[in-house]
Structure prediction request, 540 residues.
Amino acid sequence: MANIGGQGQQIIILPEGTERLLGRDAQRMNIMAGKALAETVRTTLGPKGMDKMLVDGLGDIVVTNDGVTILKEMDIEHPAAKMLVEVAKTQEDEVGDGTTTAVIIAGELLKKSEELLEMEIHPTIISMGYRKAALKAQEILESISIDAADSDTLKMIAMTAMTGKGTEKAREPLAELIVKAVQMVEEDGEVDKDQININRIQGATVEESQIVNGVVIDKGRLDPAMPKNVENAKIALLKYPIEVKSLETDAKIKLTDPSQMQAFIEQEETMVRDMVDKVIESGANVLFCQKGIDDLAQHYLAREGILAVKRVRKSDIERLEKATGAKVATSLEDLTSDDLGIAGKVYEKKIFDEVLLFVEDCIEPKAVSLILRGSTKHVAEEVERAVDDAIGVVAATLEDGKVVAGGGAPEIAIAKGLKDYAETISGREQLAIGAFAKALEVVPKTLAENAGLDSIDALVDLRAAHESSAYMGLNVFTGDVTDMKEAGVIEPQRVKKQAIQSASEAAEMILRIDDMIASNKTPMPDEGMGGMPGGMPPMM
Prediction:
């Protein structure tokens, strides 16, 4: 609002009911929201982290300690908190693991910035210091990384990722399955994680999980008369429906003779029969169709001994392409014997209460399936989340070929390097770099707290141990500081790289906000965690 000509007239530039926070109030509110979100997931970090039970409005339950799953399931409203959720989602998409680490580092950076703001240090200077610290952190991380991407290293990476995630008792056999699956789909040094299909089935122990040398489709054959087991399968993949197209316009046909009706029916039958003949001529004995298959076509296919499946998902069709070498035919006219894929056997099998179709014994498949078991639905879901994380870290290691020690070792090493670097920087940015270094120590500190250890003693011991080696980390099971490289507790370099980078950028962005303008078109609760009086939405 503004006065004009000293007459007391006001110009209103924002609609009535709009709420606004300026300067320190806006920064304080955003920092508070970020800290609250980090505290929410903090207890889930590490091998001894606890789980969260999330219940939605319909009563559906999710029990997990996977950071990104917790944040996705929570109903978060505060805009600054939503920005930290994006940090977790990016971490999940880029690496697959380290989501909790990224969020608690971002929360701690905001917490440390609050102390600097109290010292009258300008937010821009803090942001500049954080940016310099993040760049230096990447340099230090590179210097303490280990070059390794052999099968033993990949197995250790997978086991570290699954420790404390409900799969611990079966982490060795699962790690072997994961490493094998990732190595099978790897092409030219890159891994497409979408080519590893995970089928989660309850009703057995985790140890009974298995890898399929091919693809598993969660559908059965169309007709009981179709063969249940096909050896030396020649597989056709079809985008085109095997059914008579219905007219898209309203048309009325006047029949003057009953024989004309019979002719129409016979014509339709002939068209369907011709379509089936095209499949038979190609030499296929297994058919996967992305669209529908007419009941009459099913009958003809069954009579010819062809196993057919309809309405197969596009992602499954793509995996079948990669696994069998088949080419997808866009129309039946295009289908030839050259387009067919090959598999040793295709068979239907019922596991627990699910009917599945196995396409097995493929020659050098670039798509595989994992069947994960769990005694209950919630156990099986958590196993799937743990395996998904492990696939991500194994793929990242295979692509980059670089690992770092676990147990909080890289954070302590980077913090130590940043403290030395801060002394070479003049001005107030030195304080921001020092704050960044202290913020990184939240990872080993949280690992110790979650294991019931004294976090101050653990930090002091770790700092002392890092005078001699950059691989010293905290063994949360014994409480001792040990060489994590020798203990086989290792993580991909990309996990730490991405976590530090995205946490730093999110904290910088939140710090630079000095004005929050919230439209109050819909009624909002006046109070709430991280809420803003009258208009700013609460955090959760």
Observations:
- The longest strand covers residues 341-351.
